[in-house]
Amino acid sequence: AAAAQQAGGQGRRRGGRGANRRPSGRERHDEKITVYVSAEELMDLEHARLVLRGEHGLAVDRGRIVREAVAVVLADLESRGDASILVRRLRGR
Fold this sequence. Notes:
Number of helices: 4
Helix content: 55-70%
Largest sheet: none
């Protein structure tokens, strides 16, 4: 498992998919992570899901929203580096 994870991870880190980074969307996933969030963060995520459905006609689950958000943030990090929103937020804490 470690070898597969190492082999798969290297291609994603350097060079990656760049600005064309697209999340996987609705498909079977091979890997899983567990992320703990506060009650408020979970409510915010659920609110976003309901807004996407009600105001934009997008019926997506929370996992899809999280994958899309991660893809956007990682693409920003790849293209903007030190000026990316992720670096700025992490340094601000």
